[in-house]
Structure formats: structure tokens, C-alpha cells
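can u do me a favor
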């Protein structure tokens, strides 16, 4: 089973773990290994039961409690997860990983002080534990401690592969100075590029020349929105070393320019400009009469990031809650969602307009114009909401109970985007309250 798992044949591995257990019902390690595969497959209830069986056989094994706690946390039972992380620590208090894991659980329930203390304990055991540094940075950032948060955020390159690859160059990292030729290069996802781009004007003011490498889909929009002497290039283009004196990745900009909540206000009202002509044309095309309200919607994320599934909502649930006689829905979701749109119309009689001339995934400039053509935007935390916020468009974001660090602690508003109103889950995986709050904020429903 172990070999089969390593080779990627999970179904066969599961069968062999079960056979091992059938031969020896007291084989605790087999229950533990089976639980690991089931958890990785998203079968959390089965994984939890398997870990509990391992613990029943060997109740003093710290690893089993830790693994059970991880499954409970991913499954949404954070209280039980913390109890089991503590049990793991009680049997083995010398593993930095256990403190990092319980720190994550505390962070997700909003107990940031306990989370930071747990990460601190992990780093006392292993000062070079990059993942604990990274997670601690996220806790600091949620708390609004930007000085510590952005400093620890620099550990991201050693902590996670989600960030991307660091560029290979002999040129130094930019350390805040005037008159240099600077290469600013993108990292992470396209939504992160949009968010961190709010700091481009701050950097530009200090440079003799600024080259910005971004996702190619953003170039038309960014060229319209930022000073004309900025040179925008696609991410995959090689920039010759004689063209710049220093470089800096997008995610390192806040370390120099966003040390306080007040420092975000210089750009939080919006920094991108859609094509007004295109937006006006789209609005005229979409409206049948002036009494209608256009609500642009987006409901899932395609980025393979931990927690992406928990932050998504179904199109049916979103559309049914916000449907009203005067409402016309406009699809802002990227990717092929035609089957979902057809199913919604067939089963619920609700139509979501798909604008055929705009590819929401590849034509970001067109998507920006479509967003501006709408009266409101309602979305989960994904590219759509970052684009709406950067455009200064009035929008509503539906946030999971353990949402991303960038939305901070304020129940209704964040510090990146003034125009985006936050609607947070009060219960894990329960969208009823956020949807009711969104509905209550729309005059058309009153």
C-alpha cells in the first residue's frame, strides 16, 4: 500500500491498507496511513474515523492526534481540532510542526494572539522553520501589525510553492532609494498582481525608470491606468540585466510602502481605469429599460489553493437569494460555466447573461469594462472581486469563516479596497447570513 500510494495508485493503496487491517485489526499504523489518503481525497469523515481507530489501538501516539486534528480542521470542526492538537503536544512537545498546526487552527477561528504564540513556540524549537514564519506573517497581517507582518512575509519563498519562482539575476533587491532603474516582477496569482499593483505609483515616484513584469492579460488595462513612462512586459519575457539596476517582487512592495492602515488610503479608492466607451456600450446592450439593476456575479475560484473549496458558493444558491423582478444577472465568472448557467435557467427559471464577445478569463480589459457596466458586483474572494475593488466599483464580497489574510479583521470593510463591502460567514460553510446581508444592502429588495 505504501508503494502504491507513492506511485499515485490511491485506490489500490486503499484496498491494500484495508486488507492489512483485515489481517491484523490492531494495526494502528495501517489505520493512520489509510486516514492520510482518505483525507487527501477529501473524504474527511472516513479519514477521521480511521484516525480514531488508530488512536483507540495506540492512545499515546502523538502523530495520530495531530493527523486527526488536521482532518477535523479541514472538515470545519476547529474546536475539536484544537483539542487534538493539544493532545498531540502533550505526548510530544518537541515538534515544531505541532505548534505550527495548532497556530493555524487558532488563526482560522480568529484567536490571533494564541496563533502568534503557537508560531513563536514553533520557532523557538526551529528558528529556520519557514512555514511557521510564513503563517505567523499572515496572523500579523490579519491583526493589522504590518511592521511584523510584512517582515515575516519575506519567508514566503522558502515556505510555499504557491508563490512561484524567484527570478535568477545578479542584480540586487531594491532597498528603497531614488533614481534607480527598477524591475518590478509579478508573483502569485493574477488577483494578487492586481492587489499589489496599488503600490506601483509609490515605487514609480522613486525610479528613473520602471519596468513592470505582469500577467500578459493585464497589460492593456495597466497601460491605461498607470503613467505612460512605465514599461510593462509579460511575466515570461527575459529582461536583460543591463536594463535595470535593482529588482523587487510585487509582494515585497508593502514592506516599504504599507506599514500602517493609513498608508493604504492613498490608493484604496481604486487605481485601475476601464475603457469608458466599452463599458457604456456594454451597459446599453445589457439594459432593456432603466428600471433594471445589473448585478455582476462570480461564485468560485479555479486557483488550486488550500481553502479554495471552502470559499466557493454554488451559482444556484447565490442567484436564488439575490433574484428579484428588477434584477438582471451578468456573468463575471471566468472559465467555462455554460453548463451551470443552463442548469440554473432550466431548473430555476433564472437567467444569467453571458456576454459572448468577452472572454472573462483571457480578456481582462473586457472583464473590467463589463464590471463597470454593472450596478453592483457580488462575488467570493477571487480575481473578480480584486478587479472590482481596484476599479473602485461598488461590490460585495462573500467571505468564508476562515477567509484570506488580506481581508483583515474589520467585519464590514478591508484596507485594500474602499468600494468593497465584506460579508463574513458566522458559521463554517453556511452562506445564509452573508447572502441575507447582501440582499438587505440592496435598495431594489426593500
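np, heres the sequence
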Amino acid at each position: 500500500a505504501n508503494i502504491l500510494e507513492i506511485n499515485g495508485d490511491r485506490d489500490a493503496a486503499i484496498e491494500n491498507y484495508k486488507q492489512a487491517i483485515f489481517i491484523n485489526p490492531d494495526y494502528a499504523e495501517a489505520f493512520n496511513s489509510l486516514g492520510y489518503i482518505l483525507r487527501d481525497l477529501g473524504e474527511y469523515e472516513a479519514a477521521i474515523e480511521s484516525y480514531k481507530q488508530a488512536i483507540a489501538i495506540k492512545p499515546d501516539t502523538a502523530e495520530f492526534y495531530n493527523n486527526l486534528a488536521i482532518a477535523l480542521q479541514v472538515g470545519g470542526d476547529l474546536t475539536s481540532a484544537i483539542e487534538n492538537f493539544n493532545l498531540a503536544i502533550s505526548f510530544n512537545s518537541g515538534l515544531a510542526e505541532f505548534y505550527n498546526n495548532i497556530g493555524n487552527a487558532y488563526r482560522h477561528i480568529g484567536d490571533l494572539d494564541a496563533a502568534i504564540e503557537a508560531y513563536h513556540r514553533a520557532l523557538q524549537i526551529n528558528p529556520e522553520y519557514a512555514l511557521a514564519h510564513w503563517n505567523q506573517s499572515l496572523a500579523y497581517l490579519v491583526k493589522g501589525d504590518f511592521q511584523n507582518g510584512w517582515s515575516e512575509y519575506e519567508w514566503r519563498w522558502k515556505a510555499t510553492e504557491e508563490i512561484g519562482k524567484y527570478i535568477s539575476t545578479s542584480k540586487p533587491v531594491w532597498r528603497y532609494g531614488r533614481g534607480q532603474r527598477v524591475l518590478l516582477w509579478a508573483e502569485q496569482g493574477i488577483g494578487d498582481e492586481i492587489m499589489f499593483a496599488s503600490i506601483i505609483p509609490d515605487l514609480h515616484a522613486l525610479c528613473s525608470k520602471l519596468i513592470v513584469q505582469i500577467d500578459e492579460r493585464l497589460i492593456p488595462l495597466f497601460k491605461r491606468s498607470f503613467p505612460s513612462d512605465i514599461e510593462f512586459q509579460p511575466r515570461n519575457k527575459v529582461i536583460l540585466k543591463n536594463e535595470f539596476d535593482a529588482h523587487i517582487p510585487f509582494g515585497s512592495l508593502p514592506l516599504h510602502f504599507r506599514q500602517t492602515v493609513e498608508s493604504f488610503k492613498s490608493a484604496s479608492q481604486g487605481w485601475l481605469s476601464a475603457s469608458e466607451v466599452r463599458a457604456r456600450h456594454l451597459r446599453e446592450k445589457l439594459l432593456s429599460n432603466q428600471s433594471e439593476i445589473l448585478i455582476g456575479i462570480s461564485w468560485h475560484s479555479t486557483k488550486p489553493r488550500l481553502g479554495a473549496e471552502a470559499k466557493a458558493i454554488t451559482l444556484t444558491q447565490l442567484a436564488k437569494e439575490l433574484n428579484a423582478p428588477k434584477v438582471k444577472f451578468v456573468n463575471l465568472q471566468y472559465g467555462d460555466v455554460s453548463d451551470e448557467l443552463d442548469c440554473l435557467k432550466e431548473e430555476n427559471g433564472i437567467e444569467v447573461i453571458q456576454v459572448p464577445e468577452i472572454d472573462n478569463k483571457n480578456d481582462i480589459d473586457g472583464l473590467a469594462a463589463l464590471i463597470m457596466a454593472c450596478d453592483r458586483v457580488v462575488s467570493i474572494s477571487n480575481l473578480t472581486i480584486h478587479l472590482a475593488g481596484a476599479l473602485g466599483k461598488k461590490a460585495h464580497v462573500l467571505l468564508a469563516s476562515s477567509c484570506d489574510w488580506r481581508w483583515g479583521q474589520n467585519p464590514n470593510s478591508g484596507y485594500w479596497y474602499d468600494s468593497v463591502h465584506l460579508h463574513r460567514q458566522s458559521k463554517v460553510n453556511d452562506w445564509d447570513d452573508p447572502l441575507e446581508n447582501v440582499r438587505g444592502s440592496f435598495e431594489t429588495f426593500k
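The first strand starts at residue 180 and ends at 185. hope that helps!!
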